[in-house]
Each structure stands twice: as C-alpha cells, then as structure tokens.
Amino acid sequence: MILNVGRIALLVILGSIITLQAPLAQDDARAGSYGDFEQRLQRIVNGLRADTAAAPPMKLADRMNELRVPGVSIAVVHGGIVEARGFGYASIGGPPVTPETLFQAASISKPVTAVAALALVQAAKLDLDGDVNLSLKSWKLPANSFTDQSKVTLRRLLNHSAGITVPYFPGYPAGAPIPSLGDVLNGASLLCRGLTRLQRSAHDRSALCGSANTAPVIVDHEPGTRFEYSSGAYTVVQQLLIDVTGTPFPTLLEDLVLKPFGMTHSSFLQPLPKNDTPMAATPYRATGEPVPGGPHIYPELAAAGLWTTPTDVAHFALGVVRAWTGRDASVLSQATAIQMLTPGLGNYGLGPIVLGVAPHRRILHAGVNDGFVSLMTMFENGDGAVIMTNGDQGGELANEIMRGIAVEFDWPDGQPKATLTSGPPAVARH
What we know:
This protein folds into two domains: 37-110 and 256-408, DD-peptidase/beta-lactamase superfamily (Beta-lactamase, 3-Layer(aba) Sandwich); 127-247, no CATH class. The protein contains 14 helices and eight strands. It has helices at residues 37-45, 60-67, 109-122, 145-149, 154-158, 181-186, 190-196, 202-209, 231-245, 249-258, 301-304, 310-324, 334-340, 394-408; strands spanning 71-78, 81-88, 103-104, 307-308, 353-355, 362-369, 372-379, 384-389. The strands form two sheets. A six-stranded antiparallel beta sheet has the order 2-1-8-7-6-5, sandwiched between helices. Strands 3-4 form a two-stranded antiparallel ribbon. Strand 1 (71-78) and strand 2 (81-88) form a beta hairpin.
C-alpha cells in the first residue's frame, strides 16, 4: 500500500529537459557499507512503477519533466543503513539537489512533534489521557457541548480523534503578516475570511481581520468518536508543549528529537534563517512556475513547520522503529513506542500511520506544503525510504519512486498490484 499523496492534475511536458544529476556522495557516515547500492539505484531511477504491475517501468527524468518537478531527494534505507542521492535542481537554473538540500517536510512534522510530546509524557510532564485544558495556560480550547460529553486528550490530538477542526494550513506567502500562535488558534471568523478575499492589500486584510488565514481551532464533534485529520489538533499540541515547558518550540524539538536522532540538517525555525536559505529548495506549482516569493511561512510549526532532508527523516524513522522493537530506548522506551505505534481510527497511531502485521509492520506519513511534497515509510526491520520533492505534483512522482524501491528491495508491502484496485484515501495536504 502506497500513500496517495499530492493533488490530482493533468500531466504536462516541460519545454526543457531536466538532466538527472550523477549520484552524489551520500549523507551518511556509513557510505559504501553495501557496495551494490549504485547499481540498485540505477535500476530504481530507470524503473519507476505505476500502481499496477502490468504497466511498463518509467524513467525518473521523464516523469520529473512530465510532472514539472524540478528536484527530487531520495534516501533509501536497507538494514538500517541510509544512502541518499539528489536529482534535478533545487531551483530551475540554479544549484543541483544534493543530499543536504533542505525541503519543507510539511505534515511529516507531525510524527516528529508526537515524539517530543511522548518524551514529555515519559518524563511525567504531560498526561496522555488527561484533559489538555488543564495543562494549557496561555490559550484554552473553547468549551462547548461536545467537550461536555468527552474530553480532549493528548492521545486524541495525536491520532486525529479529538474532534478538532482545521484539516490543513496554507501557510503565509512572502510579505504577508505572520500571525502569532494564539492568532492561529483563535482564527478568523467565517465572515472575515470571506471579506479578506476582497481586500486590496495584506495591510487592509490584517487591519480588518487579524493575520490568521484559517478558521478558529475548535471542537466540532464529540472527541474519541471518529477519525478526522486535523492540523489544528497539532497546533493545540504545539501550544501545549510550549505552555508545559516554557521553552520555544524550535528549541524544545531540537533538544528532545532532532539532536537525539542525529537530525543535523533539520530545524523548526520559520522562516528559515538566512544562513540556511542557500541550501533550501525553491517550491514550484503544478504549472512549473515557482511559488511567488518563495517558500510559504508556517507558524503552525507542529503541523507543518519542519525544514529537513530525507536523510534526517530516515534517521528519525529508524529511531522510532528501533524503540518500537526494543533496540534503542534512548529517546522513547519500548512501552512508549508501542503506545505510539498502535494503530487506531484511520490506521493512525500517535503521529504516523501504522500498517501491516509483525514481522512486516511499517510506519508512514506524507507531507504537502505549497510547492513541496514528501513521503516517508519505514518497516520494523529497518528497511524504508524517504522522498522529498519541490513540485506540487511530487506526490504522484514520490509514489512511483517508492514502488520502484519496493520492487528493487522486494518489500513485503508497497509493490505494484497485480490488478488495478482502488487505492488508499488521499492524505490531507498537511
């Protein structure tokens, strides 16, 4: 089963051909630890797969051109060893993608945030099943008839069953006012959101409606009764972690997750610091045009704010499955990891999707920000891959690459189907 990520769009041929970069030095200290990787990589890039096994293999260069995706970064993990390569360009006419090129991870930020929250549960600083309003200080979830029936808990926030609104965040383009976290949580009224489309400038809009461009984060059905994907829920988690620790979210996540998992090229700082912007990919729309002004800014850090590389995400996913299987308890204990990766409604654990049965279980998550699409999967045995792209149609490409990797490494799940069947539901934009 491969996630259906990205938006539905017509395939359009680029006027100019993207040249694949030669395989670059990988971004892991264990380079060369299995010497046939280059040959396997060439088979992968020449053997992208559609959803059905009967369809002929496709070439990465051709599909990048057809889908108007300028750059792709791929980390393949086999037996716990990470190999990473870049293809195409970080920006058209600019530098090539390398394993160190930074991409917005979008919703892959969510499982990273979940690990931080669970680390605080382990440290007895948070209650996984307590009412979050008892721990929130600077902002509270508005009480209503739904919260009277059942409480909003951290567990429910993390697995999208808390009844929270706002499925995704569009981010804020260059030059737009950036709201505070409280402004995002309070949101803009329906009337105000309608009016903002008529305003002549960002200044007019901010003066009338505040700077948030999404609805208020509220509970709109009884918590615990159904799965409903919610980036708003993770924004509540962001406020919760800040209130409980008194630490800025980027610093907290660096200390609890990024450093312990060796994510040396990752940050939750938004916008990206100027020193790091030369390493960042430029996002592109489905038309092949760059996102105006460059990457959007996402103050909703927990839901969509991580800048990273496939190698770093691979190390994160490896760390999580090693805790799950009892091989490494340096960040999460096995007991905590088992709670995290027990699938609930919608096959979501506390952060990632969890599929399969032992010994072939795996975790996965996708991410879509404006002009960036990514996909992560990791089996419990330490095999997996992370794919990051800088094009709006990168979801289709990432699925095809992931199937090619699944075929090459004979994964027990994720290979093309013998006959066409209906795929899994599309993952929300974040």
